[in-house]
Amino acid sequence: MHFAYPARKNSNPPPYLPRSTRWLKIRRRHLKPFAALALAVLGLIWLFSGGSKHKGGRVISGKPAVVVVTVFDGKYDNSPYIKSIRENRSRYAEKHGYGTLLTSASDYDLKGSPASWSKVVAMRHAITKYPDCKYLWYLDQNAFIMNPYLKVEDFVMGSTKLEDTMIKDFPVVPPDSIIKTFANLKGGDVELVLTQDKEGLAAGSFVIRNGEWAKFFLDTWFDPLYRSYNFQKAEAHALEHIVQWHPTILSKLAIVPQRTINAYAGDAHGEQYKDGDIAVLFPHCSGTGDKSCARVSERFSQQWRTSFSKA
């Protein structure tokens, strides 16, 4: 990090000014930083005391309450497996009056970045398409929503629910990150909900409250600087970086138990799915072979349909 050197003193003294004129110049010079500081403080107060609930100077109506976002890789769009995922999202959204953004990674120009970055752009796209939604739930392609009765705004984002489930004063990136989740964060102040698996933060399923903070977070995450770092796990490691080193983001983050929104199926990398969980993900499945996503998901495909038919 480079620090500016102190300015050298000018050996030629300024011309003499009358006392009153000098006083006005000095006062103006000292007032400017105070004015800038005051504006910054007011901006922060606005942002964190309700400004994020406004869109374009008006209050967000919360209709729809939730938008479900999924990005498809486009490789097997006509397969029964992908059609089942699309139907799964649509039926869940229809039941609760939610919106959906079911899009393809090829719809976005990522300027050469890995396709996995498309989830960030898609969330920003969803805010543009549904400017009055209250929450956005990103769920990876290789996942099923299993419990049609659970509503995101209550089960995940309800203030009381968050108070009970968020993991406080805990390493953001386990096991030994020195940066920890806030110990005194209130449920009503949470803007972003994430989970962890055995490898770190898990971005296969996360929820954001719509508003100015959400746009700030997504724009920060997608910053060209982070995309140029060539992180080993692209956007996943970029997320870990900004969450740990940006207090404005960390101060609004709640980490909840993995099975709350991100249970895994037959995977040793995280908590296993149990009946009643809201969703099941297949994060390490492949395109073909015995561990293909279509094969790993088979036992859940009929299960979600049965649950939805009874709901």
From TrEMBL:
InterPro entries per UniProt: Glyco_trans_34, Nucleotide-diphossugar_trans
MF-aspect GO terms: alpha-1,6-mannosyltransferase activity
GO biological process terms, semicolon-separated: protein N-linked glycosylation
GO cellular component, one term: mannan polymerase complex
Signal sequence bounds: none
Lipoprotein among keywords: no
Keywords: Glycosyltransferase, Transferase
PANTHER family: ALPHA-1,6-MANNOSYLTRANSFERASE MNN11-RELATED
Assigned protein family: Belongs to the glycosyltransferase 34 family.
Protein's recorded name: Uu.00g072230.m01.CDS01
Organism: Anthostomella pinea
